[in-house]
Specification:
By secondary structure, the chain is an alpha/beta fold. It has 7 helices and 12 strands. The strands form 3 sheets. It has a 5-stranded parallel sheet, sandwiched between helices. Strands 8-9-12-10-11 form a 5-stranded mixed sheet, with helices on both faces. A two-stranded antiparallel sheet has the order 4-5. The chain starts with 14 loop residues before the first strand and ends in a 5-residue tail after the last strand.
């Protein structure tokens, strides 16, 4: 902690809040999320190298919800890499960790210079594959007097199911969420269960692999693909109708309803 800066008193605990903005539709942002953003001293938004000076989806939403946010908005680097084909994927673990460490240091510095409420706005939910989880861990470790909170947001799988008019789960069905970037084993285990609805995130570049697995387990009919869910460019497709070699953006959601229906 900087010299001359007193610790945050327990009677007036500072707060670090992960604020879920939902899939991208401002009408799907909760009242609580808007209230926290309206009161925040600092609002962090994720920024990728590829975006450059362009506004990310989270930042656009925050500016829509809080027109005076420019003075409190700060972009946090979220390390990604761009392949020669133009697709965006996570950078290597060392680069990602370096970006997280820098973001955590920035959060600590803002608290040390007087911020009482710092919000990190994330698309979707802060508890689901979110950078906020790493920053929250660092804040708990380095600034234990700061209270860490989460305002949940509507997830892409919920928004996809709603847009397609297909229930995620009914009756005694189960639900499994799998990051397609983790490989085939976890996805295969879930697809093998006929009473399990399966959602795969981050699967744009893995579409051919996922298509093959879905066909193998009799799940290709009924499998849905959602891109930019909740945004102006939202696209819903039946996976079976797409070119077998097609690829999609990194942030793509696949939904395979339970086949037992």
């Amino acid at each position: 902690m900087d010299a001359g800066v007193s610790p945050v008193p327990d009677t007036e605990a500072a707060r670090f809040v992960g604020v879920g903005l939902g899939p991208g539709d401002p009408e799907l942002v909760t009242v609580k999320a808007v209230r926290v953003l309206s009161r925040a001293d600092v609002i962090l938004v994720p920024q990728t190298e590829r975006a450059g000076a362009d506004l990310g989806r989270a930042e656009r939403l925050v500016r829509d919800l809080r027109p005076d946010a420019a003075g409190v908005l700060e972009r946090v680097d979220f390390a990604m890499r761009q392949s020669p084909a133009g697709a965006v994927e996570p950078a290597d673990s060392r680069t990602r960790q370096s970006a997280r460490d820098q973001a955590a240091a920035r959060v600590a510095a803002r608290f040390d210079t007087g911020a009482r409420l710092i919000a990190m706005a994330t698309i979707g939910d802060p508890s689901v594959f979110s950078t906020f989880s790493y920053l929250a861990e660092a804040v708990r470790r380095d600034r234990p007097a700061v209270r860490v909170e989460v305002v949940p947001g509507i997830t892409a799988m919920q928004a996809l199911a709603a847009a397609a008019g297909v229930p995620l789960v009914i009756g005694d069905e189960t639900l499994t969420l799998v990051p397609a970037t983790a490989g085939t084993a976890a996805l295969e285990r879930a697809l093998a269960l006929p009473d399990c609805s399966v959602v795969a995130y981050k699967g744009g570049r893995q579409l051919p692999m996922m298509r093959d697995l879905l066909a193998r387990y009799g799940r290709l009919p009924g499998a849905l693909l959602g891109t930019d869910i909740g945004g102006a460019d939202q696209r819903l497709s039946a996976l079976a109708d797409l070119d077998p070699d097609a690829k999609a953006p990194y942030f793509t959601t696949l939904l395979s309803p339970a086949v037992s229906r």
